[in-house]
Amino acid sequence: MAFPRPKKKSYSEEELYEYAVGALARRMRTVAELKRLFRARVEDAEAEYGKTLIELVIRRLKDRGYLNDSQYAAYFSSLRRDNQKFGRQRIITDLKIKGVHGDVIDTAVDAAFEGVSEEKQAREYLRRKRMVKPKDQKQTARIFRQLARGGFGTKTIFTILKKWDADEETLSELESESA
Fold first, then answer.
1. CB under 8 Å to 162, separation ≥6 — which residues?
2. pLDDT in tens, 27-40
3. Please, what is the end-to-end C-alpha distance for the chain in angstroms?
4. Model confidence, pTM
5. Domain interval for residue 134
6. N or C terminus: fewer CB in 10 A for the chain?
7. 155 located within any domain
8. What pLDDT score does 1 carry?
9. Contact (Cβ atoms closer than 8 angstroms) between residue 38 and residue 46
């Protein structure tokens, strides 16, 4: 069932602030995500008054410490690394989708993956996905794609597959496809 779009109305600064605090109480959000929520609700969000109102509320939330993209990126990175065992590239992509600035992403992901072995992380990811040593070309390709979706580099993927004694012909085909 699709949810209906919220009705646009004219909010006062205080009403919009209360809405934002409620949204942030449900879960952490980035500045870009909160602006998207506001634009969907605020009447004349593209007009000068709407833009100013949104910026005022964002500034107020930042001043009170409720909204901080760098803290969000650091928390998000460590959570995805530890719980879902994702690789560096997947986390970077997910943070870009959330609207976090590139410099903030680089800092947070570098801090999250400091001292973490990508090969060990990839093996934990495979264990989490219940994937075992491939028996044929089809399974080797499946594992390759799964690790690529998980955000691991091709160098790490080929290292793991070679240690599993994957067929050299299959590896060369996968390498030519990924290039």
1. 171
2. 999 999 999 998 88
3. 41
4. 0.84
5. 118-178
6. N
7. yes
8. 65
9. no
CA distance 172 to 155: 13
Q: Are residues 131 and 169 in the same domain?
A: yes
Q: Does residue 91 share a domain with residue 49?
A: no
Please check whether residues 107 and 128 belong to one and the same domain. no
Q: Is residue 43 one of the residues assigned to a domain?
A: yes
Query: What own/partner pairs with CB < 8 Å and gap ≥ 24 does 37-42 have?
Result: 40/5, 40/6, 40/8, 41/6, 41/8, 41/9, 41/11, 41/16, 42/8, 42/10, 42/11, 42/16
CB-neighbour burial class of residue 139 (10 A; exposed 0-12, middle 13-18, buried 19+) = middle
Q: Among all chains, which residue has been given the structure tokens 């979706």?
A: 149
Domain assignment of residue 141, yes or no:
yes
Residues 56 and 74 in one domain: no
Residue 58 and residue 75 share a domain: no
Residue type, 158: F
Tens digits of per-residue pLDDT, 65-77?
Answer: 999 999 999 999 9
Residues of the chain with pLDDT under 50: none
Within 10 angstroms of residue 109's Cβ, the number of other Cβ atoms is 22
- CA distance linking residue 106 with residue 88, whole number of Å: 10
Separation between Cα atoms, residue 154 and residue 46, nearest integer Å: 43
Specify the pLDDT at position 111.
Answer: 95
7 in a domain, yes or no?
A: no
Q: How far is CA 147 from CA 7, 19, 23, in A?
A: 42, 40, 34
